[in-house]
Specification:
Strand content: 25-35%
Low-confidence stretches: 1-16, 287-296
Mean pLDDT: 77
Number of helices: 4
Length: 296
């Protein structure tokens, strides 16, 4: 038995409802930095990149930037510098053995052996009360003749650089210290907004097919709706759209042959002149399947 993903339809203008939906403004998406306290843990958010400090690149061994981050402890040393520690014994440090001298790696055992300041950082508030910080490596590297400076973002790369010029591009060298609670709320809001985009597709299609969208529309517009609740509303609408398409018989099968002679069969839902493929892409969920026997 052949089973394939079916497609969900767009508009039958004759059924269209005169409705629209407004996405809520989520306050959790506006990040506020905390005041640095030695021994406390934070997620480091780079202002210029709009991303978090995370391990990545080269098998996850380099300090990088990404949409999610690592919780790190910032602990002051006796001379007022700081260590940046992840998972209790993995320290961020300047690796002077790398070809470019601009990478950071994790190491849990050698901090006491460092003699060139590789594990230590100067963390300074950019202006009093701003809760925005610069992070400067205290390492020295005469061997590689490398200019060691501020941690930050260089355009076009997800690796954290150590030579950011704060005079020419200040935001790329600016960091916010994000609390765990604020980070969790931020990630939940991001997930909700991603799901909300898919729900809007389903709302648009359902409305044009004359399907009641009141409940799903309320979910879409609610600032309190979680990603799971939004996905559930999307799935409900997808099932109703599927039922409408099945009842009308507007499911068609198309077989294509690639340059190697391999055949691939795809099922579509036909609405008017439109053939809409792959509901997984349009709605972000595995909506439903059709079996063989649908009309060609």
């Amino acid at each position: 038995m052949f089973v394939a993903m079916a497609c969900l339809g767009l508009a039958l203008p004759i059924y269209a409802q005169d409705v629209s939906w407004t996405a809520p403004t989520l306050s959790a998406l506006t990040l506020t930095g905390q005041t640095l306290e030695s021994g406390s843990s934070y997620y480091l958010y780079n202002v210029g990149a709009g991303m978090f400090y995370v391990n990545g690149n080269d098998y996850g061994t380099e300090a990088s930037l990404g949409s999610t981050g690592l919780l790190v402890a910032l602990t002051a040393t006796t001379d007022g510098n700081y260590t940046i520690c992840y998972d209790s014994n993995k320290y961020l440090y300047y690796d002077y053995n790398t070809a470019f001298g601009a990478h950071f790696w994790y190491d849990g055992t050698k901090i006491s052996e460092s003699s060139n300041g590789a594990y230590y950082f100067e963390i300074t508030e950019t202006s009093e009360g701003s809760n925005v910080y610069s992070i400067k490596s205290k390492a020295t590297d005469e061997t590689n003749n490398v200019t060691i400076g501020y941690l930050g973002y260089e355009e076009g790369s997800t690796e954290i650089a150590i030579n950011v010029n704060l005079e020419t591009n200040a935001e790329n060298g600016q960091w916010l210290l994000i609390s765990s609670d604020d980070y969790d709320a931020y990630q939940a809001a991001v997930a909700a907004n991603v799901s909300r985009e898919f729900l809007l597709n389903a709302l648009t299609d359902a409305s044009e097919l004359g399907i009641d969208t009141e409940d799903a529309g309320e979910t879409y517009e609610s600032a309190e709706a979680t990603a799971d609740e939004i996905v559930s509303a999307t799935k409900t609408l997808a099932e109703e759209i599927q039922a409408k398409g099945t009842a009308s018989g507007d499911v068609v099968k198309r077989t294509t042959t690639d340059e190697d002679g391999n055949e691939e069969t795809t099922l579509y839902q036909k609405v008017g002149a439109n053939l809409i493929p792959n509901p997984s892409f349009r709605y972000g969920i595995a909506c439903y399947t059709y079996e063989t026997g649908v009309p060609d």
